[in-house]
Design goal:
By secondary structure, this protein is mostly helical. It has 27 helices and twelve strands. It has three domains: 8-200, Glutaredoxin (3-Layer(aba) Sandwich); 207-365 and 455-635, Glycosyltransferase (Alpha/alpha barrel), CATH 1.50.10; 378-449, Arc Repressor Mutant, subunit A (Orthogonal Bundle), CATH 1.10.10.
Length: 640
């Protein structure tokens, strides 16, 4: 996935390598008895396994690689991405399978392949570097890191020739004056660190008091009041922003425009191309502001956040249709992302039948076609509805009765409603609903036969987010199935949280194999258990407090919170407040939960009392990234 809008010629199909890609995804290759890159082939990450047969001599991330870089005089080229990312697959085909690119990387760099969901702290830092130096960032992300550990330069997705030019330019400059470049990289690292430090400088009391007004002004300016969402081109759901808006609306602190904006945004996201209206899941983002041109990766953390948003909004606004969308999203997770006994290579907890949920579904089907699992060519649509009494009604309901919206076929969307269909086809509304349900079932059944590769890593933090969404469904008493599903997630998380010092980043695998959990992992698990306890009286309060105490001990210091206990690169510093853009802020969540549990725990009460909560200049500069924090600080001030 890239935050860029590459031109159309960059968006080439991967069908040429379809057969080979399918075998690689399964961990095999038709031409090689042994993998070219054993570290990739043996990885727990399917994204790394995807690169097992590349001519690039990839290495898995390890801090010892910096020692190797110093000894060899070669910088690292860290390439970060994830399995379900469309442009990660495109760059794999165009560049990392190319012999010329491989020769450049193998000779002049130590090539490192990084799964951003496994090494989230390092990936986040590299993203911040790229955003600060390049203006935008995304995946696949490729950053040159000098042997001393300082990032030098980077590039996101680029076609083969552009990436070759990037590498040649770096090599040319290194050859001409490597010492000077090392100094520039170190200076850039210090400058980025100083920028973060400057952002931490507390605002005056007067400016801090105006932060809610600053937030609402910036939000209103960046909100699209016609199409919903934020931004000008590429359109993400930005679940943390929506969550903050719902909180303010519940507390009657939101400006008048917020209710209508939320309504437009939730309507557009649910009925457009951002959502799989047949199955119920949400895609990662849309390239266009009308939400209609998605990249088709589906992430567990997005489903969890958006399910909770729609359930909260449904209750707040009395909208049963939004509640239904939230439940359909949870149903989608249970149906399409659950790991079962028959799943080969699933991350398994031996003592339990519950195996968790896949971290993501690929944007590409098993033939290498982007969106191939979701798009409907005319012939496939006709075949799926062959036995339906009113196929045209089904087409009209799901917006597939006109010209296809994509070159590979129709993407189902919200089309005609029940009343309009009843009038057009001269049927009563009960019969229309019956036909729509039969059509949906037929289409989903036909779609089940299509291959859709999954990333079967079981992410600890994402399961914490999912538990919060399931807790919301249980709190509203929306169905026993969600309590059953939530109990499975809660029990698995609780068993890991009983030893908070050893909480792993991935569930179902020993922590020593995957590394310890990060600050956000602790925050999301603690929040999930807290929300479940509030909804079910499960008795998880002390478990939550143990997680919080461990998080404070492990990640906090004089300068704030570190994302990871042992930062892998020198510029990764602690900050008092972390942003929340596509996922909640781990630091803010820890602070909020600590405040809720401080009365029952003297250590937590002391930790919060000693923490400098004065907002800094960086929050004033980027209020949307700290919307939840600003509202929480305002609430504390009102109470205080």
């Amino acid at each position: 996935m890239s935050f860029m809008n590459p031109v159309s010629e960059m968006r080439r199909t991967l069908a040429v390598l379809a057969a080979g890609l399918a075998l690689v995804l399964a961990g095999a290759h038709p031409l090689a008895a042994e993998p070219a890159n054993p570290e990739m082939a043996d990885s727990i990450s399917p994204y790394l396994r995807l690169h097992a047969e590349d001519p690039v001599q990839w290495r898995a991330w390890d801090r010892d690689l910096l020692d190797e870089a110093r000894e060899s005089g070669r910088p690292l080229l860290i390439s970060s991405g994830y399995f379900s990312c469309h442009y990660c697959h495109v760059m794999h085909e165009e560049s990392f399978l190319d012999q010329g690119i491989a020769e450049r990387l193998n000779e002049h760099f130590i090539p490192v392949k990084l799964d951003r969901e496994v090494h989230t702290a390092l990936d986040t830092y590299l993203l911040e570097f790229q955003r600060a130096t390049g203006g935008s960032a995304g995946w696949p992300l490729n950053v040159v890191v000098m042997p001393e550990g300082h990032a030098l330069t980077g590039v996101v997705y680029a076609p083969r020739d552009g990436f070759a030019d990037f590498l040649d330019g770096v090599v040319e400059r290194l050859t001409a004056d490597e010492e000077r470049l090392a100094e520039l990289a170190a200076a850039g690292s210090r400058e980025l660190e100083q920028r973060l430090r400057d952002g931490e400088k507390p605002l005056s009391a007067e400016r801090a008091a105006r932060l809610p007004d600053v937030l609402w002004s910036r939000m209103e300016r960046e909100a699209d009041d016609l199409g919903g969402g934020f931004g000008q081109e590429t359109r993400f759901p930005h679940s943390p922003y929506l969550d903050a808006l719902l909180t303010a609306q519940e507390d009657t602190r939101a400006p008048d425009w917020v209710g209508e904006f939320l309504s437009i945004t939730l309507e557009e996201m649910a009925g457009s191309g951002l959502r799989d209206v047949l199955g119920g899941g949400f895609f990662r983002y849309s390239e266009t502001p009308d939400w209609g041109t998605p990249h088709f990766e589906i992430m567990l953390e997005d489903q969890a956040q958006l399910a909770r948003v729609y359930l909260r909004a449904g209750e707040l606004f009395g909208r049963e249709d939004w509640t239904r969308i939230g439940l359909e999203t949870l149903d989608f997770v249970g149906r399409e992302m659950a790991l079962r006994d028959s799943d080969p290579g699933a991350a398994v907890a031996p003592e339990s039948d519950f195996r968790g949920f896949a971290s993501s579904l690929s944007a590409l089907d098993d033939e290498g076609r982007e969106g191939g699992a979701y798009l409907w060519p005319g012939s496939a649509l006709e075949a799926a509805l062959e036995d339906h009494p009113e196929p045209e009604l089904v087409r009209a309901r799901f917006g597939m009765d006109g010209s296809p919206s994509f070159s590979d076929g129709h993407l189902p969307a919200d089309g005609m409603d029940t009343a309009a269909l009843a009038e057009r086809f001269d049927l009563d509304e009960d019969r229309v609903r019956e036909y729509v349900d039969r059509g949906r079932e037929a289409l989903i059944e036909a779609r089940q036969e299509r291959g859709l590769p999954r990333d079967e890593k079981v992410l600890t933090g994402a399961h914490g987010m999912l538990l919060s969404a399931l807790a919301e469904a249980v709190r509203q008493d929306l169905g026993e199935e969600y309590e059953t599903m939530g109990r499975d997630v809660r029990d698995w998380l609780a068993s890991r949280a009983d030893e908070p010092e050893d909480l792993p980043a991935l569930l179902g695998l020993p922590a020593k194999e995957v590394g310890p959990a990060t600050l956000p992992d602790y925050a999301y698990v603690a929040r999930g258990l807290h929300d479940w306890d509030a909804a079910t009286d499960s008795g998880d309060g002390e478990r939550v407090r143990a997680l919080l105490r461990t998080a404070w001990t492990r990640f906090s210091g004089e300068d704030g919170f570190r994302t990871t206990e042992d930062p892998p690169l020198p510029g990764m510093i602690a900050e008092r407040f972390h942003p929340a853009v596509h996922r909640p802020s781990g630091a803010t969540a820890i602070l909020q939960l600590t405040a809720e549990h401080a009365a029952a725990d003297a250590d937590l009460e002391s930790a919060l009392a000693d923490y400098p909560l004065e907002p800094g200049q960086g929050i004033e500069s980027n209020p949307l990234h700290h919307a939840g924090l600003i509202l929480w600080l305002e609430e504390r001030g009102d109470e205080g």
